[in-house]
Amino acid sequence: MRKKKPLIIVGTGSHSIVVKEAAELMGFTIKKIIDFRNKKKLAYAKKNRKNFNFIIAIGDNYLRKNVFQNFKKNSISFAKVIHPRAIVSKKAVIKKGTFIAAGSIISPNAHILENTIINTGAIIDHHSKIGAHTHIAPGVKIAGKVTIGESCFIGIGSSVIDKIKIGNRTIVGGSAAVIDNLAGNFKYGGVPAKRIRSSREKKILFLGRENCLYSKKIYFLLRGINNNVTFLESNIKNSQEIKRKINKIKKNEFDYLISFRSYLIIDRKTLDKIRIASINFHPGPPKYRGIGCTNFALINKEKKYGCTCYIMDKNIDKGKILDVKYFNLNKNLNINSLLSKTYKIMYEQSKEMIHSIIKNKINLDHLVKKNKKFKWSKKLYTRKNLNELYKINSNIKKNKLNNLLQACNTKIFKPYIQQQGKKFFYLNNNSKIFKPYIKLHGKKFFYLNK
């Protein structure tokens, strides 16, 4: 019989005690129980990952999913912990990272996906599928051919009749009876289960960007936490239309305004209508305010860059700072790769801050105090500054030209040289389609007849 690797349990709450006991009864040796917030111990676990199996013992679906995915990126080997007094069919499919508690029954052809908790005495009947990162509470009874989505919580003693479909991120209250399909991102309770609308549910106005994957992800994240979300997608052309919609909102109609990559500049009148706070995610550190921050950071050859979450006020990028995330810059990084990296980090920051503020209701004053060491720069980069940056002086030195092209050449916006009233744009594909062109330090600039 193959010897089991020692087990590291990630999570130090009460759930980890239950997981530890089941693992020991299975024959695992418990190497460590570590706090997922302890960076030193997490670093040790990742460094020595080949020597251990891992199980995430965190009851909260969101935290458990985040920790699991973070570990998965590092090729971590996850264990299945199944209590010996659980009854699990050999024809059931149980994915790694799953915990099945004592007294549970998993019938033939049931599918339990990764990082899922099947708690004490729960029953999963034949051909039912439980999505990843879901928590099935004690005493839940799920009939045959039921499909439950990702990151759901099915409360203690609930029942789900056969062939029901439950969407992602759904919460079902204790002792509920689910007899109809349930749409994702909502809370349900009662007999039969109906959607629950809490009087404490916050109303959120979310301003995102059209055709932005991260904006859509944040919208669904907000819906998963709160449900009561209005999403306005902006693009270069529809700013006035969005502004008209915003102007119609009433004072205190929304508890929060959250802005992520929106084209809109929010005026003081609108900010005063928001009951609790207006929060913006800025694609630059406090040193870089305004527009074109990534461009100017590359021009200035910065060694690190970042993004800032702050409470909006009447001044552009000047409000109280809630969080700053920094990352190192590679000297060969260009504007396209820097933008891509910045938006990714900004999205990760937005997930963390939205959960902290809206789900866990962390006090904004606490976050402001915690981040008071960060100060905004007095300099504000304007549209005029950015336009001037893109206009190349023909006397520019070669190394400065290369730096400028690295910092400014995108698919949409191109640096240019102006001669005799005509603009010659830099195209790095040496196109033969456009003529005439001029050369500067070996680089071709084409007249596009626009």
What's the short story on this structure?
The chain is of the alpha/beta class.
What does this structure look like?
With about 450 residues, the chain is an alpha/beta fold. Among the domains are: about 5-70, Rossmann fold, CATH 3.40.50; about 205-380, Rossmann fold (3-Layer(aba) Sandwich); about 385-445, no CATH class. Helices cover about 25% and strands about 25% of the residues. It has an 8-stranded mixed sheet with strand order 4-7-10-13-16-19-21-22, with helices on one face. A hairpin with a 4-residue loop joins strand 21 (about 185-190) and strand 22 (about 195). Helix 4 packs parallel to helix 8 and helix 7 runs antiparallel to helix 11 (about 400-410). The longest helix has 25 residues, at about 335-360. The mean pLDDT is about 90.
